[in-house]
Design a protein that fits this description.
Blueprint (H helix, E strand, L loop, with lengths): L1 E6 L8 E7 L2 E7 H6 L1 H9 L6 E2 L15 E5 L3 H6 L9 E5 L4 E2 L5 E2 L12 E7 L8 H6 L1 E9 L3 H7 L17 E3 L2 E4 L9 E6 L2 E7 L7 H9 L9 E3 L21 E6 L3 E8 L6
Parallel strand pairs: 5-15, 7-11, 8-17
Antiparallel strand pairs: 1-2, 1-12, 2-3, 3-4, 5-6, 9-10, 9-15, 10-11, 10-12, 13-14, 13-16, 16-17
């Protein structure tokens, strides 16, 4: 089953809707917050629908999770990416947070801030959407608690990230939360419809393939990432786990290559689709 999030024409406080895709058309279900309050109910409701009333092409797509969703990201979770970054493979999941306010959907322009004069970097990622309340769970239980999967692009500001790591207390908050940089697909494919063990991930910038790897290179599985996170914080339906990126990032190239205004980036995950975003100058911030 495949769900999609879109802007509701009604507006108001709950202005984003979750629908189910049926033969290329969309059947609306409920607002996103209500959907994640009772996923089982809405999945059952979607399962009995036979047709969609809305034209997918006419909808404005939005991030498919609540505005207050936690976005937990795994650093150096692909062995080859660790090698290109000259970093040792972690012995436990190395996690950082994204701000959900910076999540944007397919087609949203991403501005380059003044703090990143060389441009922005790309990181295609498999994103897991949590579908249950998870506290201190095993990896097996964690996998059962995944609602579905989608594609994300962890667009990064390397100047800010590298500046922070010159300090002993270095952290990645600003470099990993550049304005409107958390690109994520509006479509979610339910976990029962996809095997994430060996999916091809690719990033294409201005028509050139920059990343091409598979989830088989992941150091920690989706279940292991979620289980580790749940030991520290309770995960709730709608929270997002970005599972890491394969090798091929711009920062690791010789010389480094970054996306400047005018560039277009497309991130794709096999079987889950793709997202494309244009890179624009800082005048389009806000």
């Amino acid at each position: 089953m495949r769900f999609v999030a879109f802007q509701s024409p009604r507006g108001g406080r709950r202005d984003r809707t979750m629908g189910v895709l049926i033969e290329g058309r969309v059947a609306p279900l409920t607002d996103i917050d209500s959907f994640y309050d009772d996923i089982l109910r809405w999945r059952e409701a979607a399962a009995i629908l036979e047709s969609g009333e809305l034209d997918l092409a006419a909808l404005t797509l939005v991030p498919p999770v609540p505005r207050d969703a936690r976005v937990v990201c795994a650093a150096i979770n692909y062995a080859k990416h660790g090698q290109e970054a000259k970093l040792d493979a972690p012995t436990f999941p190395n996690l950082f947070a994204r701000w959900s306010a910076e999540l944007v959907a397919d087609g949203t322009p991403v501005p380059v801030p003044a703090a990143e004069p060389d441009g922005l970097d790309w990181e295609v990622e498999l994103a897991a959407i949590v579908g249950a309340t998870l506290t201190d769970v095993t990896p097996e239980a964690a996998e059962l608690g995944v609602f579905g999967y989608t594609v994300a692009n962890d667009i990064s500001g390397r100047a800010s990230q590298l500046q922070a790591t010159t300090l002993r207390t270095g952290q990645w908050a600003l470099g990993k939360n550049v304005e409107k940089s958390g690109a994520i697909s509006a479509f979610i494919t339910t976990a029962d419809a996809v095997d994430v063990g060996n999916l091809r991930l690719e990033t294409v910038v201005n028509g050139e393939v920059m990343q091409s790897g598979t989830t088989a290179d992941m150091i920690f599985s989706v279940g292991e990432l979620i289980a580790f996170t749940s030991r520290h914080v309770t995960l709730r339906p709608g929270d997002v786990i970005l599972t890491g990126t394969p090798d091929g990032v711009g920062m690791a190239r010789k010389p480094p290559v970054f996306m400047k205004p005018g560039a277009t980036v497309t991130a794709s995950v096999e079987g889950l689709g793709s997202i494309s975003n244009s890179i624009v100058d800082s005048r389009q911030r806000g």
